[in-house]
Amino acid sequence: MPNHAIPLRHRLLVPGLLATAILLVPAHAALAQSTSRDTAQEIAALKRALRAQQQVTRQLEQRLNALAQAQQTATQVTQTQLRGMTEQSRQVARQIATEQIAAAPPPAGPAVDAGYNGGFYIKDPSGDNSLYINGLLQPRYRFFAPRGTTKFGAKDEASNNFDDFLARLYFSGNIADPSLTYWITLQATTQGAAAAPGIILLDGELAKTFSPYLKLEMGRYWSAYTYEYYLDIGQYLLPDLSAAEWAFALGRQMGVRASGKAGPVSYSLSVSKPIPGSLSGATENTTTKLAVIGHLGWDILAPYKPMETDPDPHLVSSPQLSLWMSVAYNPVQTGSRIYNDVKGDNTKGATVSLNMRDGFFSFQGSGYYKHNDARAAEDGLPAHGGFDSYGWQEQAGYYIIPGTLELVERVDGIHWGYQQTGPTVADSDSDTQWYAGPDNFGYRQITEYSAGLNYYLHGHRAKVQVAYSYLNGESFSDEGFSANRLIVQAQLAF
Question: In this predicted structure, what is the pLDDT of residue 91?
């Protein structure tokens, strides 16, 4: 059949279907090569792609209907009107009708798409520009009672505290192209030394994804060093980091990072200015030294979903098992008593975590190692030889009511090779409380034992966590101390 004999509706529909197929092929390829850090992000990306395809389909249907209507209007020339026309006049009339159909304006599509899908969003129809807004609020009650610390210059004084432990807003999306993304985190807290009179910029990064094998980031972002710190704080197994994680984790970085994934192996390499302690603010680098972190991950079995606990009421039928390994070099620009570091230290470290999930059971086991190079006396601080420190932790959870009630436990420990903890001469806060590891007096080692319950109202979006911890430590002079801690924390997240 010649092309001009094909009905107009069919001729318009075929290009529309071809356009839709062309749009769907990259979406399918993206699914096959997805490198999202977790399945939820992949699903959200696919949903966004699907909505874009549906919008294109609707626009094609509207265009088709408009053209069909224009054709019907243009061809409503009665036989009486055509009677008496010459063949040449008829051809001219048909040509005019064809031009009118082609000139019919396409229907106007929606200017933006907005709604809620795991967070509030707004984006243009093309998907090239988008903004997603998420949030987290964690009100907390904490009871803390130390014992045996007066001999170290601290106070054995119990305390009750109510705080908004964390209040965060997350802004993310893409600009000009889906591969050009951004991430911004704003945070406020009322807790202790971390409290600030206002909102602080916690994260601010730009990224370009070139392929599944290469993504480049620049700005301030969480470091890929210790596994627990790298995860979403709203999806922790217990309300807070362990004492070992607080002591060995490297916090936010300000620098550049390259990352990617090839099959079951993920990798990243970052270069940044010196990384301050977790509770320290941003600092200016006054030296030429830079911090470096290298990371490798390996999905031994099914990939371990990157959340410490998954409240999905359906059990995990295929065991998940992944290995996390990282090494770091960090020149210390700002001393931290939590890290047992002083300004001028050069540290080298390594971490490893084995993470598994099967049925309703989750487990993470981690090891930490750090070497502090020998240093000369400077800035009023004494010299010290090189020394090694290490830590470890294991934690597990089991859903006794699937998706609703979870029993959790954790045991972790720290061993310092040399004492740099405790207040300096310039400090005047030796009577302040400590909750993870002591930062107001020197100690050699500490062990934390924790147990708790998690009650999920709507998964991680609405939950309550209760955890009791007993901490038992020893100083470098073999004197002991201990503490009891109770945390009750509610959470809303969107």
Answer: 72
